[in-house]
């Protein structure tokens, strides 16, 4: 689970789980439909590597384990 992921992979994983994507200035916000659970990443990270530590923080914000984040 300590793998580095691309921003595009995160986008795909979250959209498949029912998160909607909104633009907020320099960031992309992912909000779980019907709740206040959310996280965000910068536009510039879509094609870049995002490390395990940041992925863990994002998963925690979304009330998911890293494993659930990707399944």
Tell me what the structure shows.
By secondary structure, the protein is α+β, with helices and mostly antiparallel strands. It has a single domain (5-70), classed as Hypothetical protein (Metal Transport, Frataxin, Chain A, 2-Layer Sandwich). It contains 3 helices and 5 strands. The strands form 2 sheets. Strands 2-3-4 form a 3-stranded antiparallel sheet, with helices on one face. A two-stranded antiparallel ribbon has the order 1-5. The longest helix is centred in the N-terminal third of the chain and has 10 residues, at 7-16. It is globular, with a radius of gyration of 11 Å.
List its traits.
5 strands; two-stranded antiparallel sheet; 3-stranded antiparallel beta sheet; Metal Transport, Frataxin, Chain A; 71 residues; 3 helices; alpha+beta
